[in-house]
Fold:
Amino acid sequence: MTTTTAPPVREETLAEIRELEKEIAEAERKHNIHKGHAKEYKAEFDSLVGQLRDKCRSLSDPMPLYETNGHAEADGWRTIPIDEALPDLPAAVRQRLTEAELPTVGSIADYTAAEKRLTDLPGIGKAKAELIEKSLERFWEKRKESENAAERADGNANRDRRWEEAEENGESDGPDAA
Structure:
């Protein structure tokens, strides 16, 4: 039986191996030190990601105080589609309005402002015209309620801000104290 022996390892190769072993040990030491911190950072990261995702999901939640249905400008109501503004109106009636080229609240307002009657539209008699008018009244009531709620919220925020400023200025009796 023949045995083979490995060629002798040169001293400089052994020195390189020892140096690499030292570097590996140092890297392992650093890794172990930071491994604990990494778990903390990962937990913080996961928590923040969860908060961000919750916030993004909440954007689709109803916000009645600030509900503008995507029509925030003062005349934004003009562009609100009747399907969105008048959901209580029967679909067939909304369809007739759309076919008559009155697809938005603004287009109906313009039509009636020109002293045209809803009963002049094809398929809209007195009863349907009354349904449309009542539905529009409910739309305006809801809109007014939302605006009032938003104004109350703004007023409360202003009052709170005045109280905070008074406290900062050492006015213990509040902002309106004489």
